[in-house]
UniProtKB/TrEMBL annotation:
PANTHER family attached to this UniProt entry: DNA-BINDING TRANSCRIPTIONAL ACTIVATOR DEVR_DOSR
Entries under InterPro entries matching the protein: AAA+_ATPase, AAA_16, P-loop_NTPase, Sig_transdc_resp-reg_C-effctor, Tscrpt_reg_LuxR_C, WH-like_DNA-bd_sf
SUPFAM superfamilies per UniProt: C-terminal effector domain of the bipartite response regulators, P-loop containing nucleoside triphosphate hydrolases
GO biological process: regulation of DNA-templated transcription
Domain of life from the UniProt record: Bacteria
Name this polypeptide is given: HTH luxR-type domain-containing protein
Biological classification of the source: Bacteria, Bacillati, Actinomycetota, Actinomycetes, Micrococcales
């Protein structure tokens, strides 16, 4: 709006034309501009339509009611009459004419409006879908620089999230914002319809005063259909045909769609923002607007759908067709009555689940004749239920005694048993159950090994090698779940280097990053992370870099959460489905963990509060507990003790059955919160107990995290242990901790000051503040005034960087408000007399304040005071 107003207020500017697709908000922007300029201008609004386009002067007829009949035959007389009338009505003010849908402007009206703008009688504000459809007279104004073109674009994700929060009056989770935004292609008209239809359907709900999605598929109601059909009224027949094909197919390779449709129409749709085209060697194209795709799939009659499918198949060479159908193509075939064989269905169902559409996977599988008696489809059925978050249904399927699972071929039996082990981890089952399942798989494969060896075919048995690798991954996943990272490092290195599939190598690399991070090899972990590009594993959901967290524990948690994306390269979650919602929520949680660890409490809460509400709605108890513990710590850092205690008590309800890594991170933030709220001594005891537990698991880096936290809280006796641990570990934090421990042991204030400065330079203002607190305490005990002054200076710098964090007695004596004012004046060079005059106090009072200031800040002159305050 401001850009439009500036263009209209420009002395040489004669107008603005707003260009953008239906629903993007052109009219809304224009109305805001009109409201702002209405006091200083006569505003005339004209609305064009297909009916006015066919009438001479149809668009500007409201401006011609005062003209005599004989004047209508002369364009010059019409122009002069309208000019006189507008000037009289304006009474010295400017004239602003707004023309909506200017693409429907009739030729005579276009001529008059053009001359009014050229003559400077009016400023023109117009809105259109595309400049190519606008009368050439108006386009000429733009080409000659008389009016300016401003494109109104769809919302970006951050803009959409702000807009959602404005219209809904509460925070919106990242997962909900992303799902809604992608469903409507960022176009406000579509977004508004989608939001209200999801609230009505119960797929968008408010939990703890945060709007979240439930993980169920979005619905499309009557308003959605009407909005889409109105938008489609602006596209050509060729463009609509392309939209229908892409809606029915769910997307196609670019080369295939180009061979089946008018390429010019395809280019037009892309320019208008209706298409998403992926980059890379095998570009894929699909509709960018989920709502439009949903409506078109419902609106296209069955006969036309079959005709379009034949058209696509005839246009595409057999050699260009995929080896197997994508899930969307399989759904289209199903809708057209084209039967699919079992192998095609299984591959398509797996594609659907991995792409975030498990409902479509179930539809494909359940369409198979006699599917209830087909044990081969069981793994895909269970995977789809797990992807929907329906763990109970998945468990019922996999434990159904009528399926005679032991009669399955080895490949399918192994898949089923591995899913059983995964469910045992996901639900409240003992570790022995998952272990027993994995041992059963090993026993059966050993028997097959013997059979293969007797047939001298072991080396050639590719299926057996695949099953062995899958079993190894299952065993490793169980070990990671239990916290036994060091025990699987060797196997992970082997799989990362020589796994049989790219997905296996990626997954092993991600787990290896976690294991190396937690066992103290941060440099090696960073190298592996870069090799697999852990922050960009696919899809459009990005996680923070684990290298920048500073904490091995937080870095490992982020690596664990981001690994959820592996195997989901085509993940697209416009419909709020469980899988994509969960991953988007994990990304938001990760950002919050990075922020709270480094002490940026306000920034952390912006991520953590919506993430916690979303995780609660999805039933993710373990990660919800972690978010709650981190929120409690953020509140405690801010000094909001009541809220911190409330969240701490919520978190103590327990994380349920979750991975040990998540449980450990929960404990870390809970103990730090209790240290801020109550007894630091008790917190230190608990931190050492947790460190001892990590020593048993040989996760040395996490042991250092807990010892490091205890020393930061004031444990002098733990400094030597920190020094010893850190000296054997890799990474910047280990180096800092080693120097920190050495400084405490040797009571070296200068070393601690240097370490605090390094921590601040690395972006860890909270650690810098805590090191400076230790330096201040030692300097005070040694009556080291210079050391005290330097330490206090670092503490103040850290507090300024952290924002709203509470200040304690450990930060040194604090100046009162009056003392701060006197200190600023004195540091600037003002004399006592000048300060007294400025503050309307006596010189003796100024002297008294300066005495307190010098004492508290450990300075002896104005020069030292100036240096300290700077």
């Amino acid at each position: 709006m401001d850009l439009v107003c500036r263009a209209l207020d420009n002395g040489d500017g004669r107008g603005v034309i707003l260009a953008g697709e239906y629903g993007v908000g052109k009219t809304f922007v224009a109305r805001q501009v009109i409201e702002k300029l209405a006091l200083e201008n006569l505003v005339v609004s004209l609305r064009c339509s297909s009916s006015t386009e066919a009438i001479e002067y149809g668009a500007i007829s409201p401006l011609m009611s005062h003209l005599e009949q004989e004047a209508l035959g002369s364009p010059l007389a019409v122009l002069q009459g309208i000019t006189r009338n507008l000037n009289e009505r304006a009474a010295g003010r400017g004239v602003l004419i707004f023309v909506d849908n200017i693409q429907y402007l009739d030729k005579s009206s276009a001529l008059i409006l053009t001359q009014l703008a050229v003559n400077g009688v009016v400023r023109l504000l117009a809105a259109c879908n595309s400049l190519t459809e606008v009368p050439r007279e108006i386009v000429g104004l733009w080409r000659d620089g008389i009016i300016r073109r401003i494109d109104v674009l769809p919302f970006s994700l951050p803009e959409a999230r702000q807009w959602f929060e404005l219209i809904l009056g509460a925070r919106v989770s990242e997962a909900a914002a992303r799902a809604l935004w992608s469903a409507g292609g960022g176009i406000p008209r579509f977004l508004d319809v989608i939001v209200h239809e999801q609230i009505e359907a119960g797929t968008l709900v408010k939990t703890d005063n945060v709007w979240v999605v439930t993980g169920s598929a979005f619905v499309c109601g009557g308003n959605g259909v009407d909005t889409v059909m109105t938008a489609l009224g602006t596209v050509s027949e060729s463009e609509r045909l392309i939209a229908e094909i892409l809606a029915l197919s769910g997307g196609m390779p670019l080369n295939q769609i180009m061979s089946a449709v008018d390429v010019a129409a395809l280019d037009s749709l892309q320019q208008r923002g209706y298409l998403d085209i992926s980059q890379g060697e095998f570009a894929n194209v699909r509709l960018s607007n989920w709502l439009m795709a949903k409506v078109l799939r419902k609106q296209v009659p069955a006969g036309r759908s079959r005709e379009l499918r034949r058209r696509v198949l005839e246009a595409v060479d057999a050699s260009d067709r995929s080896v197997h159908l994508s899930f969307s193509e399989a759904i289209w075939s199903l809708d057209c009555g084209v039967p699919l064989d079992l192998d095609q269905t299984l591959l398509a169902a797996r594609d659907a689940t991995q792409s975030g559409h498990p409902r479509d996977a179930l539809r494909l599988l359940e369409a198979l004749p006699g599917h209830r008696s087909l044990p081969r489809i069981l793994p895909e059925l269970v995977s789809a239920r797990i992807a929907l978050g329906e763990f109970g249904a998945a468990r019922n399927l996999i434990l159904n005694p009528d399926l005679q699972i032991d009669q399955l071929p080895d490949r399918h039996w192994v898949d089923v048993m591995l899913l059983r082990a995964a469910l045992a981890r996901l639900q409240d089952q003992s570790q022995e159950i998952a272990g027993e399942i994995l041992e059963r798989i090993n026993t059966r494969l050993n028997c097959r090994d013997g059979d293969s060896a007797s047939q001298q075919a072991n080396s050639a048995d590719s299926e057996l090698l695949d099953m062995r690798e899958d079993l190894t991954l299952g065993v490793i996943e169980q070990a990671i779940h239990d916290g036994r990272y060091r025990a699987v490092v060797r196997e992970l290195r082997e799989l990362h280097q020589s796994g049989r599939s790219s997905e296996t190598r990626l997954l092993a690399g991600s787990w290896l990053t976690q294991a190396l991070t937690l066992t103290g090899s941060a440099v090696d972990a960073a190298r592996v992370s870069r090799e697999i590009d852990l922050e960009n594993l696919g899809g459009n959901i990005n996680f923070p870099s684990s290298e920048k967290t500073g904490s091995a524990l937080v870095a490992a948690v982020i690596a664990s959460l981001s690994a959820e994306r592996i195997g989901r390269h085509n993940l697209w979650v416009p419909a709020g489905m469980f899988m994509g919602t969960r991953i988007a929520c994990f990304a938001e949680l990760s950002e919050g963990l990075v922020a709270v660890y480094s002490g940026r409490a306000d920034n952390a809460l912006e991520y953590l509060v919506p993430a916690a509400s979303q995780l609660k709605e999805l039933g993710q108890r373990g990660t919800w507990s972690l978010a709650i513990a981190a929120i409690a710590y953020a509140c405690a850092l801010k000094g909001d003790n009541d809220m911190a205690l409330e969240y701490l008590n919520q978190g103590k309800e327990g994380a349920g059955h979750c991975a040990r890594l998540v449980s450990t991170a929960c404990s870390y933030f809970q103990v730090l919160t209790s240290a801020e709220l109550a007894s630091k001594e008790k917190a230190i005891v608990r931190l050492f107990a947790l460190a001892d537990e990590e020593r048993q698991f040989r996760t040395t880096a996490v042991e250092m995290v807990f010892v490091h936290a205890a020393v930061r809280l004031g444990s002098v006796t733990g400094a030597q242990r920190l020094l010893t641990l850190a000296s054997g570990l890799q990474g910047p934090l280990a180096s800092l901790c080693e120097s920190f421990g050495r400084g405490i042991v040797s009571r070296d204030v200068n070393l601690l000051v240097v370490v605090a400065e390094v921590a601040a330079a690395q972006g860890d203002a909270l650690f810098s503040r805590d090191i400076a607190r230790s330096a201040l305490k030692i300097a005070g005990e040694n009556v080291d005034r210079v050391g005290m002054r330097l330490a206090q200076q670092l503490i103040r710098g850290g507090v300024l960087k952290l924002g709203q964090v509470k200040v304690s007695d450990e930060d040194g004596q604090r100046l009162t408000g009056r003392e701060q004012e006197v200190a600023v004046h004195a540091a600037s060079g003002a004399s006592n007399k000048d300060i007294a005059a400025k503050m309307h106090i006596s010189v003796r009072t100024v002297e008294g304040h300066l005495y307190q200031i010098y004492s508290k800040l450990q300075v002896a002159s104005r020069a030292e005071l100036r240096e300290t305050l700077v």
